[in-house]
Design goal:
This protein is of the alpha/beta class. The chain has a single domain, classed as 3-Layer(aba) Sandwich (Rossmann fold), CATH 3.40.50.1820. 34% of the residues lie in helices and 20% in strands. An eight-stranded mixed β-sheet has the order 1-2-4-3-5-6-9-10, sandwiched between helices. The radius of gyration is 18 Å and the shape is globular.
Amino acid sequence: MTEPTLHDVNCLDSRGLHRMAYWSWGDEHNPRVLVCVHGLSRQGRDFDTLALDLCSEYRVVCPDVVGRGRSDWLPDPTGYQLPSYVADMVSLVARLGVAQVDWVGTSMGGLIGLGLAALPTAAGSPSLVGKLVLNDVGPVIEPASLQRIGTYLGQPAHWQSVDEAADALALISKGFGPHSREQWLALTRPQLVPHESGVGFKSHYDPAIAVPFKAATPQAAAFGQALLWQAWDRLRCPTLLLRGADSDLLSSATAKAMTERGPRAQLHEFAGVGHAPTLVQPEQRARVREFLLR
């Protein structure tokens, strides 16, 4: 299978329903499901290479989080926040018809997985997440990374060609680490949609995802951090924590703390990478595969 199929699920928000798209790889009747969720301004096709690696073992499902990719945009941008994303994933798991999924989440996608895995369940019922892979994210988000992301998130962009877009996105994504031109173009193409002028391209997300991001205060960040540590300490599922050794978002101190409390994550760092590993390179995919399948 070289291409995924596209599906969608209706999810509830404060004003009604919105549609969340998801890409599915492998046997759609396979009860073993892996959900892979992308970062803040990305989309589900980021996981094409990893999904191809794993779709003989799993049904691999890669959603476009609402406001990104093929999913709907929200009329109220205050809905672009973690609790709403977790609720959408509850709807997705219900649509998939399984009691539990394994999870790979990059950055924001990891926090969504953390929130989902920490949800209380009825006595005797399993957590919705069996195995959890967090890719370069934890309960503490370093302020320097937020400042960096804020310089480009939601800003207007208009590129005349795919190659021009790829060059521009590479400049703001240096933390992704080295990629061949072919690899980078494969990561770039699904990130683009035609510009409304009819000429060139723009980013494939709702610029309003930046509204709650830029409205966050230090007090709100501290409160959110405390809630995330509480969620972390409730986890009991096997957890793998991946970190770019040069990450400006997940500090080495936070990563170490995550190995000492809660699920006591296994930690693996990738040299020469910052925020965040794309899980495209063979050594990165091999580490995820080994953890999920052993």
